[in-house]
Amino acid sequence: MTDMPEAQPEEDKEQSLMDHLMELRNRLMHMILSVLIVFLALISFSGDIFSLAAKPLQKLMPAGTSMIATGVTSPLLVPFKLVMLLSVLLTIPYLLHQIWSFIAPGLYKHEKRMAVPLLFSSVLLFYCGIAFAYFIIFPILFGFFIGVAPKGVTVMTDISQYLDFIIAIFMAFGIAFEVPVATFLLVAAGITTPNKLAEKRPYIIIGSFAVGMVLTPPDVISQSLLAIPIWLLFESGLLASRLFLKDKLNGDDVIMKTNEFELIEEDAAVASSGEDKVKADDQETDGSEAENMDDEDMEKLFDEMEQEEDENNQKPE
Predict the structure, then answer these.
(1) Chain-centre distance of CA 269, in angstroms?
(2) Where are the domains of the chain?
(3) What confidence score (pLDDT) does residue 250 get?
(4) Whether the predicted model's global pTM rises above the 0.90 cut
(5) What is the pLDDT of residues 194-232, one digit of tens each?
(6) CA–CA distance, 301 with 258 (Å, rounded to integer)
(7) Do the Cβ atoms of 180 and 240 come closer than 8 Å?
(8) Burial of residue 173 (number of CB atoms within 10 Å: 0-12, 13-18, 19+)
(9) What is the pLDDT along the chain (317 residues), one digit of tens a residue?
(10) 236-251 as b/e: b if 16+ CB within 10 A
């Protein structure tokens, strides 16, 4: 009889872990099934989809030329690969929804409020990067490549190499357009400030060209066409952090704040002087107490704060 209470918590923990694993499996199955459904719906249009993807190049090719397939299986596998990639791209919102539904129960309310708009903006920026590459970058690149072809050389691009090229460009610009989100997260997390990032602008510009050199084919044109948007997107993320994190930046370095709790960075308290000296000492004491708390104590504190907030919201006015 005395062993039963000790064994029960272990069974509960194991069952709770199994529940999480079962939920993870179900959501992975839903994600795979969604991609498969979209793929089966598009596979019959694989030829038209590839023609649409090759349109920026075909419009600029000399008269009497066309794309070729040097591999035996290329006419089958290349459109198949393109449709599979398109299926994943089209289902990204649903895939992220499944991932969010799995991790959301373990997040705090303030984390949920920040994560939802960031996820939405990340997907939107990724699609914008792909559209920018297709409508703006491809005509410039292909026109340049065809224009510099030596006399007597007929431009006839292999469809497999063309697909690999456009996938690399799509991924490069899709990832590059996430720079504003990354910049905003760095400021929101308190890792840096907009002023510090602005001081490092020359290094950001050099880093943008380095990223363009790594992610794009080895030519100056494509590297510059990626590096310049990265720099401009960094500036937009810097501007967004100044606008939407104004309270955090002008709030005496407030790290976290609720209706009943305010955690202030220790350096800001030390910087206070004169009439605020006593207040600064109190803030230093609170900061040292917060540093001595371990992760479990901090989580309990946040849980109690959220519970009190919920209780206050449920009380009739």
Answers:
(1) 34
(2) 19-50+72-103, 111-250, 254-303
(3) 59
(4) no
(5) 888 889 899 999 988 888 887 776 777 778 888 898 899
(6) 12
(7) yes
(8) buried
(9) 444 444 444 444 445 788 888 989 999 999 999 999 999 999 999 999 999 999 999 999 888 888 999 989 999 999 999 999 999 999 999 999 898 888 888 777 777 777 888 888 999 999 999 999 999 889 988 988 888 888 888 888 999 999 999 998 999 889 889 999 888 888 887 888 888 888 989 999 998 888 888 777 677 777 888 889 889 999 998 888 888 777 665 554 444 444 444 444 444 444 444 444 444 445 444 545 555 556 667 777 777 777 777 776 665 55
(10) ebbebbeeebeebeee
Query: What is the enclosing helix (H) or strand (E) of 21?
Result: helix 4-42
Residue 254, SS3 per DSSP: strand
> Residue 149 corresponds to which tokens in the numbers above?
């072809």
CB of 121 closer than 8 Å to CB of 128? no
Q: Count the Cβ atoms, other than its own, within 10 Å of residue 139.
A: 14
Which position has the token pair 């006419």?
75
One-letter amino acid at 36 equals: L
**Amino acid (one-letter) located at 169:** I
Structural contact between residues 254 and 264, judged by C-beta atoms closer than 8 angstroms: yes
Rounded to whole angstroms, how far apart are CA atoms 272 and 61? Answer: 68
What is the amino acid identity at position 75? P
- Three-state SS for 262? strand
Instruction: Please list the alpha-helical segments (H only) found in 133-200.
Output: 138-147, 159-176, 179-188, 194-199
Longest dimension (CA), the chain: 93
Place of tokens 């490092």: 200
d(Cα 233, Cα 227) in Å, to the nearest integer? 10
